[in-house]
Write a structure and sequence with these properties.
Blueprint lengths: L8 E12 L2 E13 L4 E5 L6 H8 L8 E10 L2 E2 L5 H7 L4 E4 L3 H4 L6 H12 L4 H14 L5 H4 L9 H13 L5 E5 L7 H18 L2 E5 L3 H7 L2 E6 L2 E7 H6 L4 H8 L50 E4 L2 E3 L3 E2 L4 E2 L9
Parallel strand pairs: 3-8, 3-9, 6-7, 7-8
Antiparallel strand pairs: 1-2, 1-4, 4-5, 9-10, 10-12, 11-12, 13-14
Helix pairs in contact: 4-5, 5-7
Amino acid sequence: MPDGAQPVLKVEGLKTIFRTRGGEVHAVNSVSFDLKPGELLGVVGESGSGKSVTMMSLIGLLPSPPAEVRDGRVMFDGLDLLKCTPAQLRAVRGPGVGFIFQDPMTSLNPVFTVGYQLREPLMKHMGMDKEAAQVRAKELLELVGIPDAERRLRDYPHQFSGGMRQRVMIAIALACDPKVLIADEPTTALDVTIQAQILELVKDLRVKLGMAIVWITHDLGVIAGIADRIMVMYGGQIVEQGPVAEVFHTPRHPYTRALLKTVPSVRGPREAKLSVIEGQPPILREAPDACPFRARCAQAFARCAVENPARFPVGPGHDAACFWDFDAGAPRATTEAAHV
């Protein structure tokens, strides 16, 4: 990752809501981050924290209605993706931003061959004819480690195992050489052996192709092994972000600290119970005007109930949205500046 490189993707103040019968759900609340060329950004948090909705909002993949991107800027290649027409967004998806969806079992179309589904983006975005697209499709299957690629292009998704379907999904996402690859929990449905193979594959492809990657997962162990930087989400907003080693060794948000404590350890007594985070995630019926983690936080105090903290700088490239100063063991001064 080049030092001082300009971001390939810059997100500012992203807000996304869902209109439901019970009112609006504020799924993403003022999310801001950037992604540098060649960087791998890990995004973690509980289910419902806004990880997938944030990334799908960037390139217009949410159904509208009920979803509505209410505010923000998403700058990519000089374009604000939130102001693009549907045709412009379709041109960005593929050659600009590739997306690996969460479930390999249902993300492929069962009535078309794998070869057809690989050729389609190549012919649409890269202007290839069918013969050239077929050659490139074979190369892509070989790239992601599928043996006998020429024959497997004629097979349908049900003829592939879960791990192989995920490799096909990765091949489709890589087909147009995107600058940014978003991987939405791509190993969740796979056994640990296949997970390890997919992780090694992604690391190799990142080196070969030099793309920036956003990796969404629940697995902190995965992030520790592959990411440069980590972004922790809770209640539809970023509560902490920074270099992986820094965040893992000195977490500065109570939620990050609680997440790390839930990771099972092979050390310690066998009878030790797994740690859990008491309480429930917030119901996002209203725009956040207070800390979303306060009801589950041992450090919460009066200010947390009346003000939603911005992200305070806590180290080089490291910030956390918390009024509690863990270094001082006390609340931050009310005049202390926050980093947005």
